[in-house]
């Protein structure tokens, strides 16, 4: 069957077998191996991607079901060579050991933070219920998600990018007279 | 594992979907969100010859106000049910139950109607839908028909839906202002209920005027605890009345019978408080 899917901002048109799983389409046809397969049963969440902005398990979907939709994978997060704030937070909080669950954890954390901009411990754990980690014991993952929430707060960018009303109003109009 | 081969079909209307089902015969299967069916296909527990994907039938999505009841489209996702203000106001029990289904990723794809048609006895939506006297609106080759939940759930993974029929909507009477709670026992994250109890209670002037209680994963399908409901009506909403009524949730002495009684007590206590 013919499908057309936008993945990480690029539209792909492909002929696929109906039984092809979305995760296998991403990995084997598009070489987006950042999305991994951890289990066969839909429990582990390692294959989490976004479909039209919401997290889904790409091993629980057929590629044909993504026809006409937009998919974002872990490979589509970085901008201009800079990591996404959630990726940065996982890095600086040591929220991974073997790293296998990390792509799914990060994709689900972004989904969670879209709903909950300042989640407490319990909310993070509940939001990551569908993602299993066998190394970290989750402590640093929870910490990283909360750190990411702070990094993504409005006005949380680097000092030089922050504006205050005072700064703006004290500025003289350019090219006046 | 990879599913066995099948023919994939994508109807754009309900009538077209029903026609496809009739043409493909009883080895065809409808796929909604696929959160139960795709794992089943992958483990090769089923190998339908054709999959009819109703993901394009947008008229089956969303919750509508229909006077004394709500109409919940079969393709409404769990995520949408959780956030729907009509469900929140008139069928609080369904929102509370849906909050506990699987995990966020599954709730983004899994559908209200899909869960009911799959009819896993451990599925969370069956008992509350039964207890709330919901009615299934079904389309087939000879037109539409309505089946009360009490007749819809037949047995373990079996419903009254014929192989050539599709669930369109679920009509749920309004339970505006009722207290509700879903008490679910499981051991690990995202696991199925070992046993769960869905309770909705109407309290007027400190007395229970009406009650609905459904049991998940105690029998081969959802059960309604009618004796508990009858024992509550007319009683003061007190701890004594609740614990006395909860004893009627099951008469057996097995592990699940005991759980049914204990969890019914907890569910009613929370429902009365809320």
UniProtKB/TrEMBL annotation, chain A:
Residues 160-169 have a biased composition (Basic and acidic residues). CDD domains: fer2. Keywords: 2Fe-2S, Iron, Iron-sulfur, Metal-binding, Oxidoreductase. Residues 1-77 form the 2Fe-2S ferredoxin-type domain. InterPro entries: 2Fe-2S-bd, 2Fe-2S-bd_dom_sf, 2Fe-2S_ferredoxin-like_sf, 2Fe-2S_ferredoxin-type, 2Fe2S_fd_BS, Beta-grasp_dom_sf, Diverse_Oxidoreductases. Residues 146-177 are annotated as: Disordered. Pfam families: Fer2, Fer2_2. This is (2Fe-2S)-binding protein. It comes from Lentzea kristufekii.
């Amino acid at each position: 069957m013919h499908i057309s899917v936008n993945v990480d901002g690029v539209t792909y048109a492909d002929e696929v077998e109906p039984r092809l799983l979305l995760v296998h389409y991403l990995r084997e046809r598009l070489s987006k191996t950042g999305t991994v397969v951890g289990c066969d049963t839909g429990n582990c969440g390692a294959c989490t991607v976004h479909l039209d902005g919401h997290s889904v398990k790409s091993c629980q979907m057929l590629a044909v079901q993504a026809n006409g939709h937009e998919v974002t994978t872990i490979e589509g997060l970085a901008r201009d060579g800079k990591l996404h704030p959630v990726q940065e937070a996982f890095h600086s909080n040591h929220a991974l050991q073997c790293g296998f669950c990390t792509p799914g954890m990060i994709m689900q954390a972004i989904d969670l933070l879209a709903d909950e901009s300042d989640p407490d411990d319990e909310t993070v754990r509940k939001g990551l219920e569908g993602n299993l980690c066998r190394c970290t014991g989750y402590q640093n993952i929870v910490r990283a998600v909360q750190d990411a929430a702070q990094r993504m707060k409005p006005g949380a960018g680097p000092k030089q990018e922050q504006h205050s009303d005072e700064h703006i109003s004290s500025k003289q109009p350019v090219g006046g007279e | 594992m990879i599913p066995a081969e099948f023919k994939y079909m994508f109807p754009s209307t309900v009538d077209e979907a029903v026609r496809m089902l009739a043409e493909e015969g009883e080895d065809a299967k409808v796929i909604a969100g696929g959160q139960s069916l795709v794992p089943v296909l992958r483990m090769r527990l089923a190998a339908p010859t054709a999959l009819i994907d109703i993901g394009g039938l947008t008229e089956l999505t969303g919750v509508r106000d229909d006077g004394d009841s709500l109409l919940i489209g079969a393709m409404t996702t769990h995520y949408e049910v959780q956030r729907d203000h009509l469900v929140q106001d008139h069928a609080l029990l369904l929102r509370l139950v849906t909050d506990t289904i699987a995990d966020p990723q599954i709730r983004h794809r899994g559908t209200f109607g899909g869960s009911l048609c799959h009819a896993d006895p451990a599925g969370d939506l069956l008992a509350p839908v039964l207890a709330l006297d919901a009615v299934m609106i079904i389309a087939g080759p000879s037109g539409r028909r309505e089946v009360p939940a009490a007749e819809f759930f037949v047995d373990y993974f079996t419903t009254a839906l014929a192989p050539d029929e599709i669930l369109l909507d679920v009509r749920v009477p309004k339970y505006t202002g009722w207290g509700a709670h879903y008490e679910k026992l499981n051991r690990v994250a995202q696991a199925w209920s070992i046993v769960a109890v869905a309770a909705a209670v109407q309290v007027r002037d400190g007395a229970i005027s009406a009650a609905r209680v459904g049991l998940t994963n105690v029998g081969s399908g959802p059960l309604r605890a009618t004796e508990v409901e009858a024992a509550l009506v007319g009683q003061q909403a007190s701890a004594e009345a609740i614990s006395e009524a909860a004893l009627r949730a099951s008469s057996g002495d097995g592990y699940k019978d005991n759980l049914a009684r204990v969890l019914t007590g907890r569910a009613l206590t929370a429902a009365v408080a809320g």
